[in-house]
Amino acid sequence: MPRTQTRRRTRPSGKRYLAIGLAAVALVGLVLLLLRPDAAPLRAPTASRPVAIKLLLDGPYGARFAGELAASRQGYFSSRIEVSAQPGPDFVQTIARQHAIGVTSGQNFLLASWRGVPVTAFAASFLDTSVAIFTLESSGLRRPADLVGKRVGYRRASEGDVVFDAMMAQLGLPRSQITKVPDRDSFEALRSGEVDAIIAAIDGQPDPTSSTFVKLNVIKPQDYGIHVPGLVYFASNTLVHEQPSMIADVLQGLIRGWQFTYADYARSVPVLTGTGPAGLNPERLKFELQQQRPLVLPTGGRIGDYDESRWRTLRDILLFAKLGEEDVSLAQTVSYQFLRDVYRRSPDLAAPGAWSQDK
Question: What is the pTM of this model?
Answer without folding.
Answer: 0.83
